[in-house]
């Protein structure tokens, strides 16, 4: 399964790398080229997940498409996910030596896990509404922060960032809301880390 | 990144990963268990079979803890105040979404019981990665054990989850379990979906009820699923069907059984 994922990721990297070499003002010519790549650890979208993303002109809103993988060894089951994710970081504090901090970010994601045991539309042998949630799609929320550094590589300024996120998802959230005596917020919150390479 | 910041982050990561087990999650459907969360039915049966033998066995039938953690905690308090209870039977729907996290929460609650508990699988436990999670955490979906004058038989009756394929419940297995009860112990069949419920395979209903009725050792049989109490000789064949309510409704049953007799009480808490 890992092999299947590596090829598309390498292909993407290759396309981006070439695009950068040949087109300094690539965004003006090919608007659809991504602005950055992210690599994330944990966060309920894979043991590791990674993929391209875009950032708004004012650098506050990022949208990413992440391909995630959880090996059987670490997760008890090998699971492949695709995740769309949007992060809003309203404030950025610039420090010396090209460092910057975005102290607060928040966002939402929607992940899809592949597998015949997961359903998007329940089979016809269930009455309508028998189970109200899809098991393949999982929406989630998170908040976090990040530190970044701008570095100049090949005469171009690129942003490099490390971020953390504390998140949860719909099924855990509803479990908590209905059981505030037994469950603590920490029972439904999980931590993730990631890095971002700007182009 | 300044060196000091790097150290702080490293320390933070190390600290968090040591102090908060499970702080990193990789997928809602991951099946990550501690060793003491595996093969619980087998371990708890061993505990039950070490209990001193008595002529009369008293146990609790409860179930459908699905997303009722507050109520399940209160159940444990109520159950621990009962006297002469040998063990607790969980009639299924341990989880609501088939998530390992839910099974772990319920087990954490049930660990606070003074008694061992064993489970039978419910339809919600068969959703998503639920079957694998149940299998690793509790064990086989169909199983049995003997204690004193009783043989407890647990069977997966969640036919709808298998698209009513005709193989669930496994009637051949049920028949062989009853047939191997040669010493004539009370045969107590425990399942999640009762045969008269729409989630039980209609094509197997009469054969299932017939198998129970044909065995003189089967006096009564126990279920959950319906989120309400029910009892009666549903098929007028001498077998008493008991359905317990969900802990969400703050109720459970206490079953007392002895050679040749039984008694069932309802408890509200």
Overall spatial form of chain B: globular
* Largest binding interface between chains: A-B, 47 and 43 residues
Number of helices of chain A: 5
Q: Going across the biggest sheet of chain A, name each strand in turn.
A: 1-2-3-4-6-7-8-9
CATH class of chain A: Mainly Beta
Helix proportion of chain B = 25-40%
Instruction: Give the structural class of chain B.
Output: alpha/beta
Instruction: Let me know the average pLDDT of chain B.
Output: 95
Return the string of H and E elements of chain B: HHEHEHEHEEHEHEEEEE
Strand order of the largest sheet of chain B: 4-5-6-7-9-8
The first-to-last residue Cα distance of chain A is 28 Å
What name is given to the CATH topology of chain A?
Porin
Question: Layout of helices and strands, plus pairs?
Answer:
The complex is a heterodimer of chains A (199) and B (269).
Chain A: H1 2-22, H2 26-29, E1 36-41, E2 48-55, E3 61-70, H3 72-75, E4 79-88, E5 93-94, E6 99-113, E7 137-153, E8 156-169, H4 170-177, H5 185-188, E9 190-198
Antiparallel strand pairs in A: 1-2, 1-9, 2-3, 3-4, 4-6, 5-6, 6-7, 7-8, 8-9
Chain B: H1 3-19, H2 40-49, E1 57-62, H3 69-80, E2 87-90, H4 100-110, E3 117-119, H5 130-137, E4 143-147, E5 150-155, H6 171-179, E6 186-191, H7 202-214, E7 220-223, E8 230-232, E9 240-243, E10 251-258, E11 261-268
């Amino acid at each position: 399964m890992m092999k299947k994922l590596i090829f598309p990721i390498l292909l993407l990297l290759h396309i981006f790398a070439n695009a950068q070499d040949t087109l300094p003002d690539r965004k003006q010519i090919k608007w659809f080229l991504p602005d950055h790549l992210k690599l994330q650890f944990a966060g309920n979208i894979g043991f590791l997940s990674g993929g391209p993303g875009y950032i708004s002109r004012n650098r506050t809103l990022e949208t990413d498409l992440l391909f995630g993988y959880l090996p059987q060894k670490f997760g008890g089951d090998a699971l492949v996910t695709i995740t769309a994710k949007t992060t809003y970081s309203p404030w950025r504090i610039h420090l010396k030596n090209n460092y910057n901090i975005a102290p607060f970010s928040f966002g939402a994601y929607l992940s899809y896990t592949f597998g015949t045991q997961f359903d998007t539309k329940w089979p016809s042998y269930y009455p309508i509404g028998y189970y109200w949630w899809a098991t393949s799609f999982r929406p989630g929320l998170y908040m976090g922060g990040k530190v970044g550094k701008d570095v100049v590589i090949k005469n171009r300024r690129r942003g490099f960032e490390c971020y953390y996120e504390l998140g949860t998802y719909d099924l855990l959230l509803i479990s908590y809301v209905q059981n505030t005596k037994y469950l603590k917020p920490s029972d439904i919150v999980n931590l993730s880390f990631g890095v971002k390479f700007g182009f | 990144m300044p060196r000091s910041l790097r150290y702080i982050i490293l320390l933070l990561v190390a600290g968090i990963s040591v102090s908060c087990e499970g702080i990193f999650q990789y997928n809602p459907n991951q099946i990550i268990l501690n060793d003491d969360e595996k093969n619980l039915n087998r371990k708890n049966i061993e505990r039950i079979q070490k209990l001193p033998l008595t002529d009369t066995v008293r146990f609790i039938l409860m179930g459908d803890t699905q997303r009722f953690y507050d109520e399940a905690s209160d159940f444990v308090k109520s159950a621990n105040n009962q006297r002469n209870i040998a063990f607790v039977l969980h009639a299924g729907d341990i989880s609501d979404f088939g998530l390992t996290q839910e099974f772990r929460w319920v087990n954490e609650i049930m660990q606070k019981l003074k008694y061992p508990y064993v489970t039978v699988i419910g339809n919600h436990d068969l959703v998503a990665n639920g079957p694998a999670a149940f299998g690793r955490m509790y064990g086989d979906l169909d199983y049995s054990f003997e204690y004193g004058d009783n043989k407890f038989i647990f069977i997966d009756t969640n036919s709808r989850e298998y698209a009513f394929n005709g193989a669930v419940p496994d009637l051949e297995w049920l028949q062989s379990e009853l047939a191997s009860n040669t010493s004539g112990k009370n045969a107590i069949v425990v399942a999640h979906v009762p045969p008269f419920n729409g989630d039980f395979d209609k094509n197997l209903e009469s054969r299932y009820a017939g198998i129970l009725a044909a065995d003189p050792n089967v006096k009564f049989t126990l279920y959950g699923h319906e989120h309400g109490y029910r009892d009666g000789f549903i098929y007028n064949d001498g077998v008493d069907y008991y359905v317990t309510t969900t802990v969400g409704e703050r109720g459970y049953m206490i079953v007392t059984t002895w050679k040749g007799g039984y008694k069932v009480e309802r408890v509200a808490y």
